[in-house]
Amino acid sequence: MTLLFTSYGLLALAAGYLLGSIPFGLLLTKAAGLGDVRSIGSGNIGATNVLRTGRKGLAAATLLLDALKGTVAVLIVYDIALRYGGGNVYDHGHLHDAVQYGYIAGLGAFLGHIYPVWLRFVGGKGVATFIGVLIGVNWPVAALFGLVWLAVAVLTRYSSLAALSATAGVVLFYLVTGWTGLPFIIVMAALLILKHHANIRRLLDGQESKIGARSS
Q1: Considering only CA atoms, which of 76, 101, 106 is closest in space to residue 87?
Q2: pLDDT at position 36, please?
Q3: Domain-embedded: residue 123
Q4: Residue 125, helix vs strand vs coil
Q5: What is the pTM (predicted TM-score) of this model?
Q6: What pLDDT sits at residue 216?
Q7: Residue 122 CB coordination number (10 Å)
Q8: Which domain holds residue 96?
Q9: What's the CA gap between 54 and 10, in Å, rounded?
Q10: Does residue 100 lie within any of the structural domains?
Q11: Per-residue pLDDT, 92
């Protein structure tokens, strides 16, 4: 975590942020002639809200692109740090630093998605980008997220509950294993949960929209 406050760490964070701040959900729905996706459903720019337009293809594209910007941010910064970080590629310390820079870039991409400067810092809830970051830093954990999400979604048809449950599963995995990157995962998980505060309230009140439900 200390690398975050170095000049290279801040550069990695900024690079990730700029990539993560691209609002694909908004761009795709506007390009398709559907107007501003923020005017329907939950009002956010993520794939779940795009799905409420009834355009499954656009929702899938949004999910893919929002995830990819997290993955790409991690892999590009990791590769640059590994190649040009000034150490031996096979040195454990150098490799550890490159991994940390990857996590920093992933955090930047996540922050860019949920707080994009282009949209006055009001973006999505970060689920797809979080998955993309996990794919870049630790793909088996991304698979774990997907399995938990799918199981909860099938059982309840609540996308928000599935995302929250899967996020909790990822945090638990990192806590139990002591895997590198735990502080970054905790920060992203906390922000993801915070962005879902309205969903949590609706879940408790029994008023949360289910997967596939269109906005009236």
Answers
A1: 101
A2: 87
A3: yes
A4: coil
A5: 0.91
A6: 40
A7: 12
A8: 2-205
A9: 40
A10: yes
A11: 58
